[in-house]
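Running co-folding for NAP.
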Amino acid sequence: MDYQVALVTGATGDIGKAIAQELVKNGMKVVITGRNQEKLNKLASELKDGVVYYDTFDINDYEAMKKFYQDVKDQGITIDVLVNNAGLALGLAGYQDNEVSDIITMLDTNIKSVALLSHLVLQDMKLANHGHIIHIGSVAGQFAYANGAIYCASKAAVKTMADGMRVDLVQSDIKITTIQPGMVETNFSMVRFKGDKAKADAVYQGIDALQPIDCANAVWFCLNQPKRCQISELTLLANQQGNAFTSYKK
Ligand SMILES: NC(=O)c1ccc[n+]([C@@H]2O[C@H](COP(=O)([O-])OP(=O)(O)OC[C@H]3O[C@@H](n4cnc5c(N)ncnc54)[C@H](OP(=O)(O)O)[C@@H]3O)[C@@H](O)[C@H]2O)c1
């Protein structure tokens, strides 16, 4: 495995944190970001010199994104791996009942920020003919489920965007992967239900949901393939989950 430094977005969230921890455990260095300064500081101090740079910015602010990436480069750091993990669902409502601000935030965070950060980082990966971009998509991008049209569409866009990147980079050694987890027990549902803990907890009741470490293991697996082998997509489901909208709960 000839990757040394990974930039992990959404490292203040559960899956991003697990990914950063797993990569450092396996000897990689990480650049971590998110919005929550306190959580980012805590993870940085836990990972010690596994973290080569960390800072917060709003991933929907392109000027802030460019400044962050330039700051990383000014430290002499070269990003070999980009894990586009930051993302969210807001609300679970019939399409016409979605809040307009929620629609905009989901599309901006899950699609626009992924497109723009990948575009930035690819400028340097392309020059080096080296790198791996891993997108955290979702099984929600494979089939739309009831009351989740925008979130599902945003994750379908991530998968299609990744497929397009892979085609356009076909002559290069750069790899593009989409990891599509099913139900993972994280703060995701608290964000979706805007702090309604009862609703969030109910999502994971009666089922042995995936854990953030399962996603982190998948990232490491994808990175740890021979140079010739590019994993285009990898889907993870809880054992009692059949697809994005079919699961068995006791
Ligand atoms: N949990 C699941 O069931 C599941 C399933 C499939 C896919 N996924 C995907 O996995 C990824 C990680 O989600 P998670 O489950 O770990 O949820 P999480 O714990 O809520 O983490 C979400 C992360 O995204 C960051 N983020 C959101 N908006 C941002 C913004 N505007 N600027 C910067 N950072 C922003 C959050 O940062 P702050 O906390 O600092 O704001 C947080 O670090 C998401 O892309 C999600 O769609 C989750």
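Result summary
The chain has a mean pLDDT of 97.
The domain at 5-244 is CATH 3.40.50.720 (Rossmann fold).
Job closed.
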